[in-house]
Design brief:
Layout: H1 2-5, H2 11-15, H3 25-34, H4 39-73, H5 79-104, H6 107-127, H7 131-158, H8 162-169, H9 176-194, H10 198-202, H11 204-228, H12 242-253, H13 255-274, H14 285-313, H15 318-325, H16 341-357, H17 365-371, H18 377-405, H19 409-428, H20 436-463, H21 470-507, H22 516-521, H23 523-527, H24 534-556, H25 558-567, E1 582-584, E2 587-589
Antiparallel strand pairs: 1-2
Length: 613
C-alpha cells in the first residue's frame, strides 16, 4: 500500500487530487475564502465555532440527564436504546451526504442546512406527545447535529495545517470542561421549576441559530471579498435547464450512493435493536428480511461507487458507457482511500472504540448507578460525565504534544492500552460492594485513554487524504463512529432487553413478579422500592449481572482497537501535503500543498497572532 512504501507521502500526491480541475465547487470556494480571510473574519469565525460548540455541548449534557425521564414519561424507559440506535443510524448516513453538500455547494450552504434541521428537530421533540413522535424527531435533530459536528471539523481542517490541526480540532470539545458539571444541574432545575422536560428541549431551537450568526456573517462577507478579488469559483452544478440541473445534482452529489448507503445502514441497524421486542425475536420474518436486504444493498454499494471508474478503465462503449459516466464520477466514498493502511486501520479502530463505549459508559451505566449504587440523578450524571471531562483534558494535552513533536501514532497505541485497561477494571469493580472511588478512577482512566486515541486517530485519517478528499475522509471517519455507536447501542439494547426482564422474573419475590414489566419499563418504578427490601435486592442483582455481561463484551471489543493502533503509519506531519491551500492557522500553504517558509510575523501563525487588518 502507498503509505507503507512512502510513509510521508499521502495517496493524493500520487493520484493527482491536487489538480484544480478535479476539485468540486465547494472546495474551490473554501480555498478562495482562505485566501481572502481578514484578521477580524477569522477571529469571528472561530469565536462562533467555539460558541456553537458550547451550546451543543451544554445541550447534550442537559438532554442526556433527562432522557430516561422523557422515555419513562411515555411509559417506555427501555426505548432509550432504540432512540440511541435511531440517532446512530441517522448519524451514520448523514455525514457523507453532508460532506458532499459542503464539497458541491459550499461550507456556508451546508452549515445553513444543518442549523435548520437541528432547529426543526428540537421544535418537534419539545412538542411530542408520545415516544414515537419523539423518536421521529430524532431524524431531524440527529441530521442537523451530526451535520454541524462534521462541518465544524471540516472547517477546522480547511483553515489549519496538519501540525496545528489536532490542537484546533479539540476546540469543539473544550466546553465539556464546563458543561460536564453544570448540565445535570440545569436539567434538574428545569424539571423542578417547570415540572416538565419540554422547555429543556425547546430553548435550543432559539439559542443555537443565534450562536451560528457570527460564523454565517464571516463566511458570507469573505465570499463577497473573494468575488471582489476575482478568485471565487464559478458554480456549475445549478447552471443550465431544470433537467440538466437534476442530472448535475445526481452526478455531483452521488445520489445513487447516498440512497444505497442510507438504506443499507437503516435496514441492518434498526432491526438489531428491536428484534428482542418482536414476536419470534431474531426469527421474525420482518427482521430477517430487513437485514438480508440491507446486507445486499451494502454489497451493491461499492460496486456502484466503482462503476464510473470501471467503465473508463475497461473502455466500455456505447449506451452503457454514457450511463456509467453519470453513475458515480464523484463517489461518496473515495475508494482509493481504502487502499491506505492508515485510513483503514483508523476507521476500524474508531468503530470498535465506540462499540465498546456504548457497551460500558453509555447508555445503561447511568441507570446502573442509580439503581445498584443508589445514587441520585445529579451524582450519577457527574460520574458518567467524568469520561467526557477526562477525555477532553487528555485530548488537549496530547494535541499540544503532537504540535511539538509532529508525530501522532504512539499516542494512539498508548491510548488504546489505557482504554482497554480502564474497561477491564470497570468490570472488576462493577459490584454494589465495590468502592465508589474505584468506579470514578476507572472512568478517569477510560476517558484519558479515549482522549489519547480519538483526536490523533482522526488526524492520521485526515493526513492520509488529499485536499479533494479531506472532507470525505473526515466524513467517513465520523460515519464509522456513528456505525460503531449504533452497533454498540443495538448490542447493549438487545442484552439489556433480554437480560433484565428474564432476571427480574427469576429473582423477584413471587408476589412482585407481576410488576416485572413495569419495573423494566420505568426506572422510577425500580427506584420506588426501598434499598434493602427483597424487591430492590432482586432489581439490583438483575441490573448488576446484566451490566457484567455488557462489560465483558466491551472488553472483548478492545482487541481490534489495540491491533489497529499498531498498524497506523507514523507520519511526520510537517513534511506532508497539508490538505489545504491558502493562508491558514499555522502558516501559508502553496499550490503544491506544501508549507511555505514561515516568516516572523506570518499573519496566520498563532505564535505571532494575526496581523492582517
Amino acid at each position: 500500500m502507498e503509505d507503507e512504501k512512502h510513509p510521508d507521502v499521502t495517496p493524493a500526491n500520487a493520484t493527482g487530487d491536487s489538480d484544480d480541475s478535479s476539485l468540486q465547487d465547494g472546495i474551490k470556494a473554501i480555498e478562495a475564502i482562505s485566501q481572502a480571510w481578514t484578521r477580524t473574519a477569522l477571529v469571528v469565525a472561530y469565536f462562533s465555532i467555539l460558541l456553537m460548540a458550547f451550546v451543543t455541548s451544554l445541550e447534550g449534557q442537559v438532554i442526556n440527564s433527562l432522557l430516561v425521564f422523557v422515555t419513562s414519561s411515555f411509559q417506555n424507559h427501555s426505548m432509550v436504546s432504540t432512540i440511541n440506535v435511531v440517532q446512530g443510524v441517522i448519524n451514520a448516513v448523514v455525514k457523507p451526504p453532508m460532506a458532499k453538500i459542503a464539497d458541491v455547494f459550499g461550507r456556508t450552504e451546508a452549515f445553513c442546512v444543518s442549523i435548520a434541521l437541528y432547529t426543526l428537530g428540537y421544535i418537534v421533540m419539545a412538542s411530542s406527545q408520545g415516544v414515537s413522535n419523539y423518536a421521529a424527531a430524532q431524524i431531524f435533530y440527529s441530521a442537523g447535529s451530526t451535520g454541524l459536528m462534521i462541518l465544524q471539523q471540516v472547517f477546522i481542517a480547511d483553515t489549519t495545517d496538519l501540525s496545528w490541526r489536532a490542537l484546533m480540532s479539540t476546540l469543539p470539545d473544550l466546553p465539556f470542561l464546563v458543561t460536564t458539571w453544570i448540565g445535570s444541574i440545569i436539567g434538574g432545575g428545569i424539571m423542578k421549576s417547570s415540572g416538565s422536560w419540554r422547555w429543556a428541549y425547546g430553548m435550543w431551537a432559539i439559542i443555537l441559530p443565534v450562536a451560528f450568526l457570527p460564523l454565517l456573517f464571516s463566511l458570507v462577507m469573505n465570499t463577497r471579498r473573494a468575488k471582489q478579488l476575482g478568485i471565487a469559483p464559478e458554480r456549475k452544478t445549478l447552471q443550465g435547464s431544470v433537467p440538466q440541473i437534476l442530472v448535475n445534482l445526481w452526478r455531483d452529489l452521488d445520489m445513487g450512493g447516498i440512497i444505497l448507503l442510507s438504506a443499507s445502514f437503516a435496514l441492518i441497524l434498526i432491526p438489531c435493536t428491536i428484534a428482542a421486542t418482536l414476536p419470534g425475536g431474531w426469527q421474525n420474518r420482518e427482521v430477517i428480511a430487513m437485514i438480508t436486504i440491507g446486507a445486499i444493498l451494502l454489497v451493491i454499494y461499492p460496486c456502484w461507487e466503482m462503476s464510473t471508474r470501471f467503465g473508463k478503465k475497461y473502455g466500455v462503449k456505447g449506451t452503457l458507457a454514457k450511463v456509467l459516466e453519470y453513475t458515480a464520477p464523484y463517489p461518496l466514498t473515495p475508494l482509493h482511500l481504502l487502499k491506505s493502511r492508515t485510513f483503514a486501520a483508523g476507521c476500524i479502530l474508531i468503530t470498535f472504540y465506540f462499540i465498546a463505549f456504548y457497551l460500558s459508559v453509555f447508555p445503561y451505566f447511568y441507570s446502573y448507578l442509580m439503581v445498584v449504587r443508589n445514587l441520585d440523578m445529579q451524582s450519577a450524571t457527574y460520574i458518567t460525565q467524568i469520561f467526557s471531562f477526562s477525555s477532553t483534558v487528555s485530548s488537549i494535552i496530547i494535541s499540544i504534544i503532537i504540535k511539538l513533536t509532529k508525530r501522532y501514532k504512539w499516542f494512539v497505541v498508548i491510548g488504546a492500552s489505557l482504554y482497554t485497561l480502564g474497561l477491564g477494571l470497570m468490570m472488576k469493580y462493577r459490584t454494589e460492594t465495590s468502592s465508589l472511588s474505584a468506579i470514578i478512577g476507572c472512568q478517569v482512566l477510560i476517558g484519558f485513554g479515549g482522549g489519547m486515541l480519538n483526536v490523533p486517530t482522526q488526524l492520521g485519517v485526515q493526513a492520509s487524504a488529499g485536499h479533494q478528499n479531506v472532507a470525505a475522509a473526515t466524513a467517513m471517519f465520523l460515519t464509522v463512529i456513528s456505525i460503531g455507536s449504533a452497533i454498540g447501542s443495538a448490542i447493549s439494547g438487545a442484552v439489556w432487553g433480554k437480560g433484565i426482564p428474564a432476571k427480574l422474573t427469576e429473582y423477584l419475590p413471587e408476589a412482585s413478579k407481576v410488576n416485572a414489566t413495569a419495573i423494566y419499563g420505568d426506572i422510577t418504578v425500580a427506584l420506588s422500592y426501598e434499598v434493602g427490601t427483597p424487591e430492590r435486592i432482586a432489581i439490583s442483582r438483575s441490573y448488576q449481572e446484566t451490566m457484567t455481561t455488557l462489560l465483558t463484551i466491551a472488553v472483548c471489543m478492545c482487541a481490534p482497537i489495540l491491533l489497529c493502533s499498531i498498524f497506523m503509519t507514523d507520519y511526520k506531519l510537517d513534511e506532508m501535503e497539508q490538505g489545504v491551500k491558502g493562508l491558514v492557522i499555522g502558516g501559508e500553504i502553496g499550490e503544491d500543498g506544501k508549507k511555505k517558509d514561515v516568516k516572523k510575523g506570518n499573519p496566520y501563525n498563532p505564535v505571532s497572532w494575526f496581523k492582517r487588518s
